[in-house]
Amino acid sequence: MHKWLIKILALSAAVLVLAGCTLAPLKPAAPISVPAQLSQTQVRNAIITSLTGRGWTIDHSGNGNILSTLNLRGHSATIRVNYDRSTVTITYVSSSDLEYRLKDGKPYIHRNYNGWIGYLQQDIRRNLQNARYVGGH
Question: Which of 101, 110, 47, 103 is nearest to 74 (CA)?
């Protein structure tokens, strides 16, 4: 009976370890098209509204780029958002406790990172569309 208990505990531990494997390929974020007639300021404001709405902090904002960090449950990710009047792009910069690593030359990261970026892209698209109707051109 004692041997069975040890085997069950060992198997349970192995399952927990496998369940903890949360790496996924780091997906490059697809560029976001900016609707025609938006000013650079409108694009910037839509991005900042999207970032702050998702809990990202603005670390630096310059001409055509924003450096932003998300701190969530002990994890952090930093991205650079480049923008102009036609396109918005999001690029991974760094992270902490997200298990970022290269495997066979390809970047991998905690699977939640890709979801965070996907939701951010949705918000940016929506806020860019809304900017077309707020305050006119």
Answer: 110
